[in-house]
Structures are given as C-alpha cells and as structure tokens.
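Q: I'm building a small set of examples for a reading group on sequence design. Run inverse folding on the following structure and report the sequence directly after it, with nothing in between.
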C-alpha cells in the first residue's frame, strides 16, 4: 500500500465521521501535507472540534485542545520554569503547545500576548523561556477557531499575525440532507458508546514517518512554469491592481505577502496529490485561492461601503487574471 493510499483511507474515515463539512476536512489534510496551520471561522456546532480530534485519532501523535479565555497567560500555553525545592533549581514544565496537533479554540478570546505566544510557536516551531529554546515536534499542526457571531470581549487577530496561517477557512451550516445524516450518525454513535463504554479507541492509521514521507511526495508534484506564472500574477494583481482592473484598484488597500505565494504553491501541490495526480492544474490554484488570500487581503473602505467582502473581491480577481 502506497503512502497516498494510506491518506485516502484516512480521508474516507474522516468523511464517514464528519458529515457536511467536506471543505474543512480537505483543508485539514492539505494543511497537514503542506506543513502549515489553519484558521477556521464559523458558527458554533459545526464539528470544528470533532474534525481536528478525529484527524488526530487517525494519526500517530498527541492531541491537545486549548480553550482560549480572557484570563489566559502565555505561560499557560508555552509552559514555564518551575522551582524544585528538592534540587534547589528550576526545571522547565512543558505547556500544552508541546503536542503534535493543537486545537486553539476561540483564539480571539485571549489577549494579544497569549495570541503572540502561540503564533511564535507556530512560526518558529520552538518555545523560548529565559535563555533556553525548546523545540516543538517536527509534525506540528495548529487549527485555531474563531466565532464570528460574538464580538464582545474578543481580541481580533492583527492582519500581520493572520498572515502566519496557511489557510483561513469559512464554514457554513450543512444542507438539510446532511443534517439528517448527522442526526442519524450521532444517534448510532451514542448507542455504540452506551453499549461498549467510552474507552473505545482506534489504532493510528498514519504514522509520523509516513506524514513526513507524504510531505516529500507533495513537494515532488510537478508544477508547470505556466502555473507558477499564474500564481505570481494572481499575487501581483493584489499589489498592483490598477494594472489589471480599475475596480480592483479601488477596492484593495494592501495586497498579499510572499507567504501567500508560497502557501498557494504548497497547497495546490497537496490538493493535486490527494486527488491522485502527479501534476498541478489551474483548477487546483483557483479552488484554494479564497482560503489562501481571504485573511491576507486588506480592503479599502470603498469596498466595504459598496458591500464587497474579501471573497467577492477574490472572485473578481480570478476573472481579470488570465491563466498563463
């Protein structure tokens, strides 16, 4: 069985456990293969927590959920030096961030210092306390969530920090058909737990070594120069929109950073690999463009006053940047 077959089995397992959130599951796997982190935004109850937890159960590695609250401190996430009276010395006590898969639940409820502590760990893959740096696991994935409904008592992430996330995924309510499937699935799960007990666990499907090998396979996916040029032109259109369309020029305040170029390249390769292809198509780039650009574009007041959001501007962008 190939590495790709193993991931296909994992994907099928996720699809069976999480109903109506195909985009979230796809982006989770892409983030895992592209070695990045994702920000998920959507109303409560859309299986955000269950999705990352189910993924972690299908992988070799540890999982930790961190509930962000206004009284949280940076040390509550990263860990801190603890004095040991018996040895008359300090020893470092690791925080919950020292796990392979992290759910940062409602990240916008914590103050800026706490957010910065997590984002530093995401970017540097290490935690520094005093003069000592402690490396995080090689396989390290953070899925942060935001609740778009409640804004009171929250601390919105600055745009520069949002740029650290590989993808920004917007979730919507499932269809009526999917809702019916969810109802029946949860009922059967509850019956199973009542009959078998709550200590049921499944063996890992994918090992950490297989994840590393899969990431290497993703990097080996062929991308034609024309596709590379297409990615660069899409990015350039956000920075010099007047060269592509006057409406874009009146809507975009700041374009995306070079991180967007790298993210689009890596994610498009991951999507092609998951689809069973050994090459990237323009459709791969177009499908991922909203999730890569959504949190990196800064719009002018004129765009917001006219009722345009980032997704609508991105669709307009796609229409005015030809495929090379």
């Amino acid at each position: 069985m190939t590495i790709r077959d193993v991931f296909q089995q994992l994907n099928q397992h996720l699809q069976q456990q999480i109903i109506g959130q195909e985009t979230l599951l796809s982006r989770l796997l892409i983030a895992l293969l592209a070695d990045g982190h994702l920000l998920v935004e959507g109303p409560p109850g859309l299986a955000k927590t269950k999705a990352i937890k189910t993924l972690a159960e299908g992988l070799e590695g540890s999982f930790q959920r961190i509930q962000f609250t206004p009284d949280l401190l940076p040390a509550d996430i990263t860990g801190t030096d603890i004095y040991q009276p018996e040895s008359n010395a300090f020893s470092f006590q690791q925080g919950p961030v020292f796990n392979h898969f992290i759910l940062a639940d409602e990240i916008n409820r914590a103050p800026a210092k706490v957010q910065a502590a997590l984002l530093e760990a995401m970017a540097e893959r290490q935690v520094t306390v005093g003069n000592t740096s402690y490396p995080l696991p090689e396989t390290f994935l953070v899925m942060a969530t935001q609740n778009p409904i409640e804004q009171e008592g929250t601390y919105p992430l600055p745009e520069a920090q949002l740029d650290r996330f590989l993808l920004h995924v917007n979730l919507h309510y499932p269809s009526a058909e999917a809702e019916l499937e969810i109802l029946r699935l949860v009922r059967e799960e509850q019956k199973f737990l009542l009959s078998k007990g709550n200590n049921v666990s499944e063996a890992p499907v994918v090992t950490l070594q297989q994840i590393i090998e899969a990431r290497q396979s993703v990097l080996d996916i062929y991308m034609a120069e024309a596709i590379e040029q297409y990615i660069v032109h899409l990015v350039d259109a956000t920075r010099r929109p007047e060269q592509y369309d006057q409406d874009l020029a009146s809507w975009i305040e700041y374009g995306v950073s070079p991180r967007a170029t790298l993210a689009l390249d890596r994610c498009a390769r991951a999507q092609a690999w998951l689809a069973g292809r050994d090459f990237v198509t323009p459709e791969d780039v177009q499908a991922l463009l909203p999730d890569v650009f959504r949190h990196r574009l800064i719009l002018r007041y004129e765009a917001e006053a006219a009722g345009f959001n980032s997704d609508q501007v991105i669709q307009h962008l796609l229409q005015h940047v030809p495929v090379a």
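The chain has a mean pLDDT of 90.
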